[in-house]
Amino acid sequence: MSEKTLVEAINLALAHELAADRDVVVFGEDVGANGGVFRATIDLQSQFGVDRVFDTPLAENMIAGLAVGMAAQGLKPVAEIQFMGFIYAALDQLISHASRMRHRTQGRLTCPMVMRTPFGGGIHAPEHHSESTEALFAHIPGLRVVIPSSPQQAYGLLLASIRDPDPVVFLEPTRLYRLFKQEVVDDGKALPLDECFILREGRDVTLISWGAMLVETLKVANELAKRNIEAEIIDVATINPLDMDTILRSIEKTGRCVIVHEAVRTCGVGAEIAAQISEHALTSLLAPIQRVTGYDTIIPLPALEQYYLPSENRILQAIQKTLEYS
Amino acid sequence: MANQEKEVAQFTIHYTQYLDKHGNPTQPLPSLAEDPKQLVNLYRSMLVTRAFDEKSVKLQRMGKLGTFPSVLGQEAIGVGVGSVMRKEDVLCPNYRDYGAQFSHGVSMSELLVYWGGDERGSNFAKARQDFPVCIPIASQALHAVGAATAIKLRKESRVVVVMLGDGATSRGDFYEAMNVAGVWDLPVVFVVNNNQWAISMRREEQSRTKTLAQKGIAAGIWSEQIDGNDVFAVHEVTQAAIERAREAKGPTLIEALSYRMGDHTTADDASRYRDPSELEQHREEDPIKRLRYYLEQKGWWNDQKEQELHKEIEEEIETAVKEYLSNQPNTPESMFDHLFEKLPEPLVPQKEAVKRLYKGSKDE
Amino acid sequence: MKTFMLPDLGEGLAEAEIVEWYVKPGDKVESDQNLVSVETAKAHVDIPSPHAGVVVKTYGSPGDIVKTGSPLVDFEGDNAEPKEDAGAIVGTLESSDIVFPTATPGHAKATPAVRALAKELSVDLQSVEASGSDGTITRQDVLSASGKAECGFEPLKGARRTMSKTMSSSHESVVPVTIMDEAILSKEKKKDITLSLIKAIIEAVKVEPALNAWFDGHELARKIHSNIHLGLAVDTEAGLFVPVLHGVEGLENSAIRRRINEIKDQVQKRAISVEALQGATFILSNFGNFSGRFATPIVVPPMVAILGAGRLRELTSEQYKLPLSLTFDHRAVTGGEAARFLKAILDSLISN
After folding, report:
1. Which helix (H) or strand (E) holds C19?
2. What's this model's pTM, rounded to 2 decimal places?
């Protein structure tokens, strides 16, 4: 009865928190009467009024800056940037101010804001609508980067992000918005931040991913199970601060690791995870760590997009490499 | 058919001045002019700002303070603005607004600690909700409208004042802030200190417009220009703007004309791009001298009082400097503090490692 | 298609329980035709259709609890305008029936068997106290956390559920102080104690109106009421009800007594209207029928006071002692105000 898509789960979480906390306000372009271009904020304005859910003029840095100012005054702004491709204009306010306000004033002023945006490719969209540059934000101290992979994760992690006293960049995989449903109970229970999640237990190989790529990763794992190869799947969820504990425990168990992300290979978050695994679990490794990623090029327009994004085949090949190594 | 052209919009920018550079009235004076107590307060505040400024530059030259941006010659703007703000109002300064900051409760030693390179200087003991010094140009304008939005949503009777330089008016943040302030009718006052210089770029190189004030017209907000070296004008016009905002009658942009008598910062040498003779012309327009002329003409000031005040201020500055110099640097591992409310687990080992590495040493 | 949400059935009612559906998918309904019967905190309510239309889907079965604002009925529109909401400004969002597993947080250390048990019992591993070595969650930990299957817990419904929520929320905000005293009741007054108490309250409100007020703890603001809407605590098999005598200060004694009888009857018959259960500015709880002298009755926000009357005892042949407990919310009422209020009650009860 309460089966929700990821975007519906987002809506549910926003509605819950708007009702529970008077300081929460939701704003961005087209989020009011239109309910957001993906309907993430549908019916919120009619339910909570224009003082809580409102549209802004078209200016992304302004949206981020407004959030910084409001948060300093004790509101809990949940701002939307329509697509990650347009968040770059807001980097100044996010990096120069949101991530620093607490540190700059030694805790006197803080920044409990959430900036949510649809991200990632695979939706056959025009240029700039398929960005996956989470590594940019992961590199900034003072920012949390959170990526849900399912409706349940979206509900619980968004609640946690809104309640968190520090800024969160909440990246919603556009491809997953309506891809599948899950039972989501509107019980107001947040999921933990700064923790990885285990999607599937296994003893033969550790697959680490986040966002939409978990769908392909899961499919591959189910295929492998038919051949009696049990893959353990870790959903990183909070990209920074990284929960290496969960990851390392898994590596100790399986000895083999494949990291999957659609973002560009060079300096992607996979590189950080791989570096830390070799730093802390070298002797557990039975094979070099494999990364299956987007290529070091601009993500192509729809005609060639399928060749860019990591496919089930590429993931399978990488796993096979680790299995065949020793 | 003849093409019917009709004007659909016009604009006018008013300029306000009460005292000319000799301290003589150029129009009927406001009631402030008959209030010696308040005027002496303003005068004092300007002298404090200047003395603090001079001392800070000296400290920097002695290697006891980091890079410092002097506000020499522009004291009337900060002091005038600060004098009409209420305690519960919010100030969003740039980095040259000491006069306003002092009036609003920031202490001299706090600013010295900040410019000395210690974040603890921004943890204001009194002005708890004011924004800290802002380095990225004009970005404070967006914080100001964010704070003003929170104030408006909560129906509070508070105003946000944001101060910017002339260079800042070229930046997107400035336009975006004014635009949203206008369309949302926010309780905010934008004060532009047009001291004619953005490091080495003259005002004319910054924008083609005749005034910077008219940029507010583009946002549909009340915009005017004043003589920023005339503390009467700063006081009256800013007060009116603040009260307009407080009564929910909309935001204002005030362009205060002044001149930057010092270098951009202590790391700048203006003689590379500016003829020193230019300074002499503008020395005549000094805001402190101007008010002194007026006070003396009214018989409310004299040399003796001047001497006494200087002595008093010197002592005040010395106390602040002493406090600053006795400030012990924070521990090396403190750089991990206040990153988040609670330091995330992955960072705890890093902090411990730094602590161990520098154990026993005082400074980096 | 239009979705009709469960409307707000009265101030602060957050949910309702479906009792009986009067329509089913496919039915054509008129505007105002009753769609469903629900039970709110205290009463049965029929919900009429907001417009004419054809029912496409009904949400929930009898016994299900529906939250205010959540979907109740889907209608087909009258105009053939099934405009598909693309719900995407660019690109195509696909949908499929992938079954995606529920993820468990990495830090919850538990073996697969224990995880499976937790899933079966709907236990959130995050909230379980781990008693195993190395912080592992054991099977017993999960069983203890679930409580349900092992201890026979049944979810509360109706008036009991409401009482539970109200009392919890009161506890979270109110700062209660109870002052107690014994009133001397004349024989005359004893004939109808409830009425005498109500009259005494009316007198006391004249002396100290501060106790007939509503308090907003968030804004720190107070609304002193000129009318007295007196809530009378009534105990029934189904739970605690507090019907309200609106504007009791303007009623004649006989009218008050008549109204008390009316509402008590309605409560017993579960026929009390929603309005009759709302708007109270002061509550009287006559709990002493069986036992209990003094008590610490609970103030129900937004009210700021409640008067509890305990077991009556004979003092002399002409006089009786009635223990009184006045709880007030010290965020909004001072001790002096409460004491003077109580004194006024005592004075009213002892007089004839």
Report:
1. strand C15-21
2. 0.67
